[in-house]
Amino acid sequence: MIERYTLPKMKAVWSEQNKFQKWLDIEILACEAQARLGRIPQKDLENIKARAGFDIARIDQIEAEVQHDVIAFLTSVNQQVGESGRFIHMGLTSSDVLDTAWAVLMKEAGRLLMDDLNKLSAVLKQRAWEHKDTLMMGRSHGIHAEPTTFGLKLAMWWQEIQRDILRMERAIETISCGKISGAVGTFAHIDPSVEEYVCQKLELKPEPVSTQIVQRDRHAEYLCTLGIIASTLDKIALEIRHLQRTEVREAEEPFSEKQKGSSAMPHKRNPIISERICGMARVIRTNALVGMENVALWHERDISHSSAERIVIPDSTIALDYILNKTIWLIEGLRVYPERMALNIESSGGLIFSQKLLLALVEKGISREDAYRIIQRNAMKVWEGGGNLKQLVLADAEVARSLDAKAIADVFDPESFIRNIGHIFKRIGLNGPN
């Protein structure tokens, strides 16, 4: 479904070759553990390790007949091993192999996503410092509120990515559980030391209590984490889409020399990558719901989870890997227009200073209700008819009784809005560009 978006390293994680290799690694490690217990002769173990392999085309051929992927895999392996193959999969059930392999594969995918997150973190940090003091309009409900800085917006995104990094670390830890405990998780036909050996070699923890499967709340947490990270990227891309709107045009995503924005309108420069990030984030979030639906299964297990997670786990990691890399590209090349930001600040006719003016009157002894009435009366004239709030309040007798011209001039100083930006940067640990 999303093959065209798969980056090479993530594609390799979810390749058939890598999946079957993990299955084979688990089977061989289990044989090693069984040999340590004296259940497999050493000569047979050596033969298994020397000859065990698989043929993907042969596996597909066998599966078409037997309708069971693990049996098809084992048949292919045994055809290469010969007589010693009778010891392979001894005491195991299919999910011992499948779920332990899932853990390894999800760890591999998770580490690639961690690399992406750390790269995005570095890019956001650099650009946050670049625009730490770049004054721009802050908005609430989409309406001009009070000035902020573009660097603070980037710093907020950087801080959220730090939380996403911690979430991803926890999700990888949660999913890093294997199980080699047999048909219903009771170790009826296999010694617990086999599970301990296999998991230790694969850098996993044994599932403390399993049924036939590793419990799917682990997978749900992993998928939900991917969904949260995708939502962070959605938030970033959505804001850039807003900033690129013609009426705003304070920032825009890169646009190459030969790029075309519309089949009909040559002037168009559309935020297509930002829109793609937002769209794919929806898919990842939706897949997280499938993960939660997979938690509840019949008794010791059914396989209603299996077909679904074979789609949503690879697709979610592939999609997130893709949009993480697109977000890195987006932030690195983002075009920022401070001059336009300044024009947008000025366009409100000084309305953005209404709270400062309100507080200045309150500090002079006027009640908040009366001060609000005075400022709103003047502000609505600007809102509905244009003009400039500063000029109106300079001519307002009620304001003049409390504030002289110099005091009013001090109120209308935009730099005062950002005097504590450095404090925020320091509080979140953004102490320098490097």
Automatic annotation (TrEMBL):
Pfam families, per database record: ADSL_C, Lyase_1
NADP found in the keyword field: no
An example Gene Ontology molecular-function term: N6-(1,2-dicarboxyethyl)AMP AMP-lyase (fumarate-forming) activity
Signal peptide, first to last residue: none
Adenylosuccinate lyase C-terminal domain mapped to chain residues: 349-429
Keyword presence, Transferase: no
GO terms classed as biological process: 'de novo' AMP biosynthetic process; 'de novo' IMP biosynthetic process
Pathway membership, UniProt: Purine metabolism; IMP biosynthesis via de novo pathway; 5-amino-1-(5-phospho-D-ribosyl)imidazole-4-carboxamide from 5-amino-1-(5-phospho-D-ribosyl)imidazole-4-carboxylate: step 2/2; Purine metabolism; AMP biosynthesis via de novo pathway; AMP from IMP: step 2/2
Similarity annotation: Belongs to the lyase 1 family. Adenylosuccinate lyase subfamily.
GO terms for cellular component: cytosol
EC number: 4.3.2.2
InterPro entries in UniProt: AdenyloSucc_lyase_C, Fumarase/histidase_N, Fumarate_lyase_CS, Fumarate_lyase_fam, Fumarate_lyase_N, L-Aspartase-like, Pur_lyase
Enzyme class at the top of the EC tree: lyase
Organism: Candidatus Edwardsbacteria bacterium GWF2_54_11
Domain of life: Bacteria
PANTHER family: ADENYLOSUCCINATE LYASE (PTHR43172)
Protein name: Adenylosuccinate lyase
Alphabetical UniProt keywords: Lyase, Purine biosynthesis
